[in-house]
């Protein structure tokens, strides 16, 4: 994976090379294997490279006909097939991204319709004097931009823009309200004033520093469920899974996977084991000494069954307090998901021997795995209700004042995704795919892995899987107390030892336990942080950290994350050792 950035200055402005260098420096962790800055007139493009395919000759920028130039952060998994469809084209490298620039020259702004992969792409077309930015349909790879009187600027991470003096470190209070209530944010606006996201699936065209056209490629197929027998569904699922995992393994460097012991990662490992003639390396994390379920034993059984090389990583209370400031420093786009912690340490360990990791993100959204989906399908008299109805801090008396607008982005998505023929379950899945997935789970995966120069790949978000699974009948997703029913059925046959239909313990990080152990001390520190004082009642915050309820502990974790994040990314205060030392500075 890589980092990209660039500036299109207006005719009245100069192109500032020093700002390009600053953004390049800020993105170095995303691409430690090489770097380049390309300049022409009022255009400057930046690339930092993590070499995965065509290691020797695939450096960017890449060039197409008539001087068209491309920089990309991503992997185009069907690059072999795209090359075979353009036999008349003379390719200069074996890079997976080079076909994209040729498809742009042939199909214009529709070029992404042919791409199968994860990507954030920037193309400068000298003939049209046009800069084109495009992001993959699920938003697996990030892309941000700023429009100003001086021109148009973009980068893979918001912190690169801020470091170069673009955008504003002041916060968009609407998005911060969402963060505190949802643990993620929605829509096109980043948390920083003046910085916008290229939306998942969006392609934008920029001329003379201004956006002149927008197009959007949808991630999910339209329409409702199709009729399908269980036998046919299992056959179709097998084909889709094997196809996706096969192309997600395309790499010129070693790859491995993250194994939690749950359904999603076990399915991926099963496919990888069948596709490789060598043992797959599987990394599993556990929490010794904590009260939460430790999946290492179960993951070890699955790994042994499938002939995988199993590497266990531990994360304890000392890791929590020591690493938390480093993890929040990597999360320039905030997501208060406690899974950032184990993901960061897994990536740190994997980076020693691997540049590419396959992971199970997207399985719950595409196959209907969340408990909120099961709740949605119960009748109201059995407590059935829609998702995201109560905020993390609702009713706790913490916020002043409580903002009623934190759910507006969710409501908007529920309205637009309620298309004719879709079931309530499909609508809930679609809503999650629009914001929860890209702005929480995929942000976590991108930032935590890229902090260590590791590329994360998500086979469940491949079109082969998505187009098949999203249109399955509801009862093949949710049946009784089981979500992901058809996926469990497939896994039960493929790997009986996985216990696909056993009661799920759930992957939980014991942050509540660790915070409670230091509740009084850490609560006092959090309560006096500037970002907290501006929005919360300090005395209530302290009381929250002393409370023992599950909901209160999760609320305390959210405030702890935000306090550290605000200190590092808004106040620009450096890490000061562990979480206690950092919050004391």
How would you explain this protein's 3D organization?
With 585 residues, the chain is of the alpha+beta class. The chain is built from 22 helices and 17 strands. It folds into three domains: 3-216, 4-Layer Sandwich (Glutamine Phosphoribosylpyrophosphate, subunit 1, domain 1); 230-498, 3-Layer(aba) Sandwich (Rossmann fold), CATH 3.40.50.620; 511-584, no CATH class. Helix content is 39%, strand content 16%. The strands form three sheets. The protein has a six-stranded antiparallel beta sheet with strand order 2-3-1-9-8-10. Strand 8 (144-148) and strand 9 (151-155) form a beta hairpin. The protein is globular.
**Architecture (CATH level 2) name of the largest domain:** 3-Layer(aba) Sandwich
Number of strands: 17
**Parts with pLDDT < 50 across at least 5 consecutive residues:** none
Name of the CATH class of the largest domain = Alpha Beta
Through-space gap between termini: 34 Å
Q: Helical proportion? A: 25-40%
Largest sheet: 6 strands, antiparallel
Q: What is the overall shape?
A: globular
CATH topology of the largest domain: Rossmann fold
Radius of gyration: 23 Å
Fraction of residues in β-strands: 15-25%
How many DSSP H or I helices?
22
Q: Write the CATH homologous superfamily of the largest domain.
A: HUPs
Please give the domain count: 3
The class by helix and strand makeup works out as: alpha+beta
Which sequence of strands runs across the widest sheet? 2-3-1-9-8-10
Mean pLDDT: 94
């Amino acid at each position: 994976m890589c980092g990209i950035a660039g500036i299109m200055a207006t005719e009245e402005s100069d192109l500032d090379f020093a700002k390009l260098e600053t953004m390049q420096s800020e993105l170095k962790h995303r691409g430690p294997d090489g770097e380049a800055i390309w300049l022409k007139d009022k255009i400057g493009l930046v690339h930092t490279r993590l070499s995965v395919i065509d290691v020797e000759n695939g450096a960017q920028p890449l060039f197409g006909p008539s001087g068209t130039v491309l920089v990309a952060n991503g992997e185009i998994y069907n690059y072999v097939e795209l090359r075979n469809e353009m036999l008349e084209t003379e390719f200069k490298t074996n890079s997976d991204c080079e076909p994209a620039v040729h498809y742009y020259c042939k199909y214009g702004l529709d070029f992404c319709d042919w791409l199968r992969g994860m990507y954030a792409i920037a193309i400068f077309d000298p003939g049209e004097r046009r800069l084109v930015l495009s992001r993959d349909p699920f938003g697996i790879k990030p892309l941000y931009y700023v429009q100003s009187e001086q021109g148009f600027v973009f980068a893979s991470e918001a912190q690169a823009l801020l470091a170069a003096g673009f955008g504003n470190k002041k916060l968009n209070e609407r998005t911060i309200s969402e963060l505190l209530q949802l643990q993620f944010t929605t829509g096109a606006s980043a948390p920083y004033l003046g910085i916008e996201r290229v939306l998942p699936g969006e392609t934008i065209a920029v001329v003379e520093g201004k956006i002149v056209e927008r197009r959007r490629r949808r991630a999910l197929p339209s329409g409702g469920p199709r009729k399908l027998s269980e036998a046919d569904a299992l056959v179709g699922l097998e084909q889709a899974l094997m196809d996706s995992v096969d192309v997600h393994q395309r790499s010129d460097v070693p790859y491995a996977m993250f194994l939690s012991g749950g359904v999603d990662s076990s399915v991926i490992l099963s496919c990888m084991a069948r596709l490789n003639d060598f043992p797959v390396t599987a990394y599993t994390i556990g929490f010794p000494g904590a009260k939460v379920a430790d999946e290492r034993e179960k993951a070890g059984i699955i790994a042994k069954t499938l002939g995988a090389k199993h590497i266990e990583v531990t994360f304890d209370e000392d890791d929590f307090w020591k690493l938390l400031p480093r993890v929040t420093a990597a999360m320039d786009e905030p997501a208060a998901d406690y899974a950032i912690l184990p993901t960061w340490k897994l990536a740190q360990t994997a980076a020693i021997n691997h540049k590419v990791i396959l992971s199970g993100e997207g399985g719950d959204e595409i196959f209907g795995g969340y408990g909120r989906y099961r709740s949605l399908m119960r009748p109201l008299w059995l407590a059935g209700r829609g998702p995201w109805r109560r905020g993390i801090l609702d009713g706790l008396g913490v916020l002043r004042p409580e903002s009623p607008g934190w759910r507006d982005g969710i409501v908007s998505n529920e309205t637009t995704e309620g298309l004719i023929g879709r079931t309530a379950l499909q609508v809930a899945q679609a809503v999650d795919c629009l914001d929860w997935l890209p702005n929480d789970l995929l942000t976590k995966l991108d930032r935590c892995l890229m902090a260590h120069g590791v590329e994360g790949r998500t086979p469940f978000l491949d079109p082969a899987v998505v187009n098949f699974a999203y249109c399955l009948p509801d009862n093949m997703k949710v049946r009784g107390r089981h979500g992901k029913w058809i996926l469990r059925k497939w896994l039960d046959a493929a790997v009986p030892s996985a216990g696909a239909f056993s009661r799920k313990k759930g992957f939980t990080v014991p942050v509540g336990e660790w915070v409670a152990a230091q509740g009084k001390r850490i609560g006092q520190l959090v309560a006096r942080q500037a970002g907290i004082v501006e929005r919360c009642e300090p005395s209530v915050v302290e009381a929250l950290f002393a409370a023992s309820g599950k909901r209160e502990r999760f609320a305390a974790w959210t405030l702890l994350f935000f306090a550290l994040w605000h200190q590092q990314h808004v106040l620009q205060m450096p890490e000061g050792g562990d979480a206690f030392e950092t919050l004391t500075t």
